Amino acid sequence: MACRRCAAVAALLCACLLAVAPAFAIVNGTIVGDARFAARYPWAVALVSPSSGGVCTAQLIAPRWVLTAAHCTSTGSEVRVGSSDRSQARVVAVAEAIQHPRYDARAGTWDIGLLRLAEPVAGPVVQPATAADAAALLREKALAAIAGWGRRATGLGYSQRLVESEVELDDLRREDSRFIFIDRASGPCGGDSGGPLLLRRADGSWVLAGIASRVAGDLCAMGGGVSLYTDVAAARGFIEGHVAELAR
């Protein structure tokens, strides 16, 4: 009887550890300084809820459009642009929030959405990946990069500055609308939802291959586990249907 109880408890603990939860700063990452931000991440934006204080990460893909996770889309969010330090960033209001029509909040699939800004933002944008980029990512499993304004460990507050990390895409696979990979050294935590999975092309340019969606395992505490990022290339039709600059 005692053995059966132990087995039941062990199974419950295992289920809890493997439970999929929204990707909540980058654990074991590096803080992005002003020069690094200007050179590598000028299109990165923080989404802040004035009412709850919650944070998500996103990216500018056109002067009036921000791409993020569907579960981060809200017309009440402040979009903070132009600085690694979100307290020093310019604040832009959201005019419209659009979730992917196939987004399933419970399953976490097609977790991608757009925010239309109330005013345009001048400056660099990041290029969403194409199907060819996604195929290269799966084929080569190259070194990639992630970034966000989330927590750097369980129990800590959201990072004031953008944090980045390079990741090795161990056991990378694609299931439905998501890239899934094991990252044993660093990974997303609370506040990194909506942030980028960046792939470096052969010409040296970086493209947005994935959007941080969920994690399985305690990445915040352990700095490793299973990361789930929405496949941007798979959602190109949705994106181009709203963002005229990308449909040309």
Task: Give an overview in words.
This protein is an alpha+beta fold and 248 residues long. It folds into 2 domains: 118 residues, Beta Barrel (Thrombin, subunit H); 97 residues, Thrombin, subunit H. 19% of the residues lie in helices and 35% in strands. β4 and β5 form a beta hairpin. The termini are far apart. The relative contact order is 0.22.
CATH class of the largest domain: Mainly Beta
- Count structural domains: 2
Number of helical segments with 4 or more residues: 6
The radius of gyration computed from the alpha-carbon positions, rounded to a whole number of angstroms, is 18 Å
Residue windows where pLDDT falls under 50 for at least 5 positions: 1-25
Q: Element order, helices and strands?
A: HEEHEEEEEEEHEEEEEEHEHH
Beta-strand percentage range:
35-45%
Instruction: Give a short account of the largest sheet.
Output: 10 strands, mixed
Structural class: alpha+beta
What global shape is seen?
globular
**What is the CATH-assigned architecture of the largest domain?**
Beta Barrel
Classify the fold: give the CATH topology of the largest domain: Thrombin, subunit H
Termini gap? 67 Å
Helix content: 10-25%
- How many E-type strands? 16
Average per-residue pLDDT, rounded, comes to: 83
Instruction: Output the CATH homologous superfamily of the largest domain.
Output: Trypsin-like serine proteases
